[in-house]
Amino acid sequence: MPGTRKLGRATDSRTAMLRAMVTFLLENGRIETTVTRAKDVRAMAEKMITIAKKDTLHTRRLVMAFITKEDVANKLFTEIAPQYQDRNGGYTRITKIGPRRGDAAPMAIIELMETAAKPVAEAAPAAKAEEKPAEKAEAKADDKAEKKADEKADK
């Protein structure tokens, strides 16, 4: 397979590490790791989610052959995969966070993307918060205009 990253490990060790990291990602929603490992984890996690979108006995067996915990596999089929039913790929996000202290390895956070409903809900309170300072600024401007008008009337 051209382009396979060896990650400085033997094949069995590398596979075990990726299985553990994908399981942890699906269990917790995010991982902090090196950029290179994050790219490999992203590929496998997205394959697992795509497989889990079609909930059959065969796909459950494929997922259980890779995911190391049965409860995480069940969570994948019942909670995670239905969120991405209308989405074709792009289930994860990799965010670079700078070098690791000690060996300066480039670090990244890989996390599952949230569904479209959650960011909209978060954006609505932010919009309301933006309106309040604007209203205060308008009120201050009105107060200043009234004071100037009063000063001119007094003269």
Please describe what this structure looks like:
It is a single chain. It contains five helices and three strands; from the N terminus they run H-E-H-H-H-E-E-H. The protein has 155 residues and is α+β, with helices and mostly antiparallel strands. It has two domains: 1-114, Alpha-Beta Complex (50s Ribosomal Protein L17, Chain: A), CATH 3.90.1030.10; 116-155. It has a three-stranded antiparallel sheet. Strand 2 (92-99) and strand 3 form a beta hairpin.
Order of helices and strands: HEHHHEEH
Could you give the count of β-strands?
3
CATH H level, superfamily name of the largest domain: Ribosomal protein L17
Could you list the spans in which at least 5 consecutive residues all have pLDDT below 50?
116-121
Shape: elongated
For the largest beta-sheet, the strand count, sense and barrel status come to: 3 strands, antiparallel
The CATH topology of the largest domain turns out to be 50s Ribosomal Protein L17, Chain: A
Total helices: the number is 5
Cα separation of the termini: 88 Å
Estimate percent helicity.
55-70%
Mean pLDDT figure: 84
Q: Please indicate the percent range of residues in DSSP E strands (runs of 2 or more).
A: 5-15%
Total domains: 2
> What is the C-alpha radius of gyration, as a whole number of Å?
25 Å
Subunit structure: Part of the 50S ribosomal subunit. Contacts protein L32.
GO molecular function, one term: structural constituent of ribosome
Protein name: Large ribosomal subunit protein bL17
Keywords: Ribonucleoprotein, Ribosomal protein
